[in-house]
Specification:
This is Antibiotic biosynthesis monooxygenase. The chain is of the alpha+beta class. It has three helices and four strands; from the N terminus they run βαββααβ. Strand 2 and strand 3 form a beta hairpin.
Length: about 100
C-alpha cells in the first residue's frame, strides 16, 4: 500500500474555503480501482498553515492510473486563487512498511 501526501500551505483567511473545495471536488476517486481512503488533515496548532491531503492506494500503479483519468482532471480543473496559498505545495509518496491499529 502507498500513501500519497500533498502538503499545502493555506492562508488563514482561506482556510474554510480550502476545506470546502476539497470536500466538494474529490470527483469519483472513491470508485477508482485500488483506492483505499482519503484524509484531509488540518492544522491542530495556530503556528502552522500546513494542510495535508492524503490518499491511500493499494499500489503505485493504481495511483498513477487515477492520475490519468478524466475524473482526476475534472477534480483538479477548477484552480483556486493563487493568494489562497502561502507557499508551493509539496508532494510525497510513501510505501506503508507496516501498520498497527487499536483494538
Amino acid at each position: 500500500m502507498i500513501v500519497v501526501e500533498n502538503r499545502l500551505f493555506v492562508a488563514e483567511e482561506y482556510a474554510d474555503q480550502f476545506v470546502e473545495r476539497f470536500r466538494n471536488s474529490m470527483g469519483e476517486v472513491e470508485s477508482q480501482p485500488g483506492f483505499v481512503k482519503f484524509e484531509l488533515l488540518t492544522p491542530a496548532r495556530p503556528d502552522t498553515d500546513s494542510y495535508v491531503a492524503q490518499t491511500y492506494w493499494e499500489s503505485m500503479a493504481d495511483f498513477e492510473a487515477w492520475t490519468d483519468t478524466d475524473a482526476f482532471r475534472e477534480a483538479h480543473a477548477d484552480r483556486p486563487p493563487r493568494e489562497m496559498f502561502t507557499d508551493k505545495n509539496q508532494l510525497e509518496v510513501h510505501e506503508v512498511a507496516f501498520e498497527r491499529t487499536g483494538e
